[in-house]
Amino acid sequence: MKPNIIHQLKKYTPYLLKAQEENLTEADTVQRIIKVFEDVLGYDALSEITQEMEIKSKFVDLTIKIDGMIKFFVEVKRAGTKKLRDRHVEQGERYAAEGNIQWILLTNGVEWKLFHLTFDEGIDYEIVFSADLATDPIEKVADLLGLLHRHAIKTGAHEEYWKQRAALNATSIGKALFSEDVLLFVRREIRRHEGILIAVEDLAEAIYSLFTEEAKVQIGPLKIHSKRSAKRSSMKNKDIPAATPDSEQAKSASRPNDQRNISPNV
């Protein structure tokens, strides 16, 4: 559960907007960010916020700790930076990789962007949320920044929020939609309402065409995921000695496919 920080945030918003207007230096911006973490987000400035922490000869603008454990890094840009770009997180990304930290906050005091990092194959990051005090309703900004409150971080509210976002992204939804069970259910519903039985492959292509090009990139090539055929294949091949090249070629025509690749728009 995250605390309601709207009252405290309203108090500091005019100062943060003025800092942007006056184009304060990065050092002055950092001091204002520290005050926000202390008075709005509930951290102890003396024991839980570290400036210029060194990680393998590199220095992080701010490091946020709880009970002595690093929770996330903060990459601060000068207040006058009008628009934060994802590329601005790249410096903090290197620090996070060195320290194996999965969370980076990028901010200039007005705009706030939280990123989640993974290190499976190189470094990959995705934006968790973006909030702007200059353009977004104060209620929205308070709700999102509430995920960074000490209590929310300590109880893992930010982790739960990220898991929910990940479950609702185009990749996750696409995988669920193009599962054989879901497609068969939709086909039955269409037959019940329209009186026509359509091929599963045609239905998959029709659904795929409804997505934007950006969503298609996230989903990847269209595939029908079949748990049933995967299970049958696993049971059929269980405890069977490895096949020779000749026998493998002979069986290939009858082997069930775990996934059928469909190339739309062909």
Give an account of the 3D structure.
This protein folds into two domains: about 5-155, tt1808, chain A (Alpha-Beta Complex), CATH 3.90.1570; about 170-260, no CATH class. It has about 270 residues and is an alpha+beta fold. The chain has helices at about 5-20, 25-40, 90-100, 140-145, 150-155, 155-165, 170-175, 180-195, 200-210, 215-220, 225-235, 245-250, and strands at about 50-55, 60-65, 70-75, 105, 110-120, 125-130, 225, 260. The strands form two sheets. A six-stranded mixed sheet has the order 1-2-3-4-5-6, with helices on both faces. Helix 1 packs antiparallel against helix 2 (about 25-40) and helix 7 (about 170-175) crosses helix 10 (about 215-220). The chain is built from twelve helices and eight strands. Strand 2 (about 60-65) and strand 3 form a beta hairpin. The model is unreliable at about 230-265 (pLDDT under 50). The relative contact order is 0.09. About 45% of the residues lie in helices and about 20% in strands.
Quick overview of this protein structure:
This protein has twelve helices and eight strands.
